[in-house]
Amino acid sequence: SAPAQPPAEGAEGTAPGGGPPGPPPNTTSNRRLQQTQAQVEEVVDIMRVNVDKVLKRDEILSQLDDRADALQVGASQFESSAAKLKRKYWWKNCKVSFLV
């Protein structure tokens, strides 16, 4: 292979070895910055969606908790009514047994 020749005068911007000129360093860093900013924006969008989902889930769990509390109150009332009814018919049964 032929040895590499130094660039000729006036050949600024050519890559070593005579290849096509590479992008200026400033353009490369700008491209990297834009890529990084795009990635950051994507992550921020994903985080916003996740936060929205968490808030929605919290709202649903709060509603579910309220419904569970209401069911607990209803169950307590049912137990109380059932106990009263049981006592009532137990006494009624005792009276009938006593009369017979």
Automatic annotation (TrEMBL):
Its main location: membrane. GO terms for biological process: vesicle-mediated transport. Transmembrane segments: none annotated. It comes from the Eukaryota. InterPro entries: Synaptobrevin-like, Synaptobrevin/VAMP, V_SNARE_CC. The keyword Coiled coil applies. It is found in: Endomembrane system. It is a single-pass type IV membrane protein. Residues 1-37 are annotated as: Disordered. Residues 27-37 have a biased composition (Polar residues). Keywords: Coiled coil. One of its GO terms (cellular component) is membrane. CDD domains: R-SNARE_VAMP2. Gene3D superfamilies: 1.20.5.110. Residues 32-92 form the V-SNARE coiled-coil homology domain. Belongs to the synaptobrevin family. This is V-SNARE coiled-coil homology domain-containing protein. It comes from Ailuropoda melanoleuca.
